[in-house]
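Human:
Take a look at this sequence-structure pair and walk me through the tokens.
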Amino acid sequence: MRRFSLPVLALVCALLPLVPAAVRADRKEKEEAAPSVELQDEAGRVVRIADLRGRVVLIDFWASWCGPCAASFPMLDDLYRRRHGEGLEVLAVNVDEERAAADRFLAGRPHQMPVFFDPKGVSPEAFRVEGMPSSYLLDRQGRIRFRHVGYRSSVGPVLEREVGELLSEEVPVAKP
């Protein structure tokens, strides 16, 4: 299993604001199914991404040492609070190797969105995360429809539009 190097991810996180926004956000030309991963929340409960089919899911990978992650965290929680009742799930996945660092980050940031922990980096590896933060927006069928690497304030309105688009799509009816 490939481990994410803290110095490498920190460097990528620091350099992302220099990359043009068009390179950092894209719509998948070929929609692909989200990797089948399990995540553990703050209470130790396990959630499988596949079990969330039928809902729009925003998975955001973040780390305590990432400045853009700290900036995006309140925006993601606000999005969750406003759109959860419409069918949006937000999964904030921390990738710190030490839980204490994540706990310190969270202590100063009240939130309602669920937070998950992946200190071994299994889920970011499965999603082929390129930098911090990285967000993946899944449609109701569990397909990756949008991806964002890095964060600027301009990402918030884009995510809002993309979430609205996916929430407005018809829910597929299962055939008997």
Remarks:
- The longest helix spans residues 67-83.
- Strands lie at 25-33, 38-41, 46-48, 56-62, 88-94, 115-117, 134-138, 143-149.
- The first strand starts at residue 25 and ends at 33.
- The radius of gyration is 15 Å.
